[in-house]
Design a protein that fits this description.
Length: 254
């Protein structure tokens, strides 16, 4: 009974996270500041109500599936075999903080190779095509997965819990940061600051343009947070930097 109650509670929280953050991003960029941010828009295409309804439906189903995988681990005896801990002093505050970017590094590696697998010609049209129906993505596209893909995406949390020590604070903070970054990647607008282009971070981190190109071209730019796997495997879209510079130069009137 407790397992069921926790599942419903965490599912509700995760769905609210999706709705609130996606809605806020959409309201701000696609409605309120639509005209003033026109130069930051990556594609000229419009987004239909049917697209958004489809994305919300698939995202809520995905949220339920991914939440179930987490609850199945942390609220059953399986948790005793994981590295989840509850006392900060066990690993120090430094590790509490460091575990978040380390988790993101592991997640990015997992995501890159899962993503490449989902683009295999025998898998793509049966599974990953659901996500790629959003070829002009918006914040509601973030969790719009086929149920099988949702399982694959959701398995990262159990995987992390068996690989590195994670405190609940680190885990929940990571999940929140991960979704915000995901929503930014699907935003449809490039909002990176002007200084970002000439910083070392540009060579490391993904941008909204980066992931948008993946949706519009269907190939390349498979990474989630970082560029390094795409650069190592030569799968980064060759037009990325030029498109990014065009949009940013237009934004800042260079």
């Amino acid at each position: 009974m407790a397992l069921l109650e926790n599942f419903f509670s965490f599912s509700l929280i995760d769905m609210l996270k999706y709705i609130l953050i996606s809605s806020a991003f959409y309201l701000i960029f696609h409605i309120i500041y639509k005209k003033s941010l026109a130069s930051a828009k990556i594609q000229d295409k419009s987004i239909s109500g049917n697209d958004i309804r489809r994305e919300i439906y698939h995202s809520l189903v995905s949220s339920i599936i991914m939440t179930f995988l987490v609850v199945l681990i942390v609220n059953t005896p399986i948790v005793n075999s994981t590295l989840l801990y509850h006392t900060v002093s066990e690993y120090s505050i430094l590790w509490l903080i460091a575990s978040i970017p380390i988790g993101m590094f592991i997640h990015d590696t997992y995501f890159y190779w899962l993503h490449r697998l989902l683009h295999h010609k025998k898998i793509f049209r049966h599974v990953h095509l659901v996500h790629h129906k959003s070829n002009n993505p918006n914040p509601f596209s973030s969790y719009s997965f086929h149920m099988i893909e949702a399982v694959g995406e959701g398995l990262i949390i159990p995987l992390l819990l068996f690989i590195i020590p994670l405190h609940p604070f680190s885990l929940y903070t990571y999940l929140l940061f991960s979704f915000i970054i995901n929503a930014y990647g699907h935003l449809g607008y490039e909002i990176a600051p002007q200084w970002f282009r000439n910083s070392f971070l540009f060579g490391i981190l993904n941008t909204s343009v980066y992931h948008n190109l993946h949706h519009s071209k269907f190939h390349g730019n498979y990474g989630l947070y970082f560029r390094f796997w795409d650069r190592i495997m030569h799968t980064e879209h060759p037009g990325y930097i030029a498109l990014y510079d065009t949009i940013q130069n237009n934004r800042f009137k260079k």
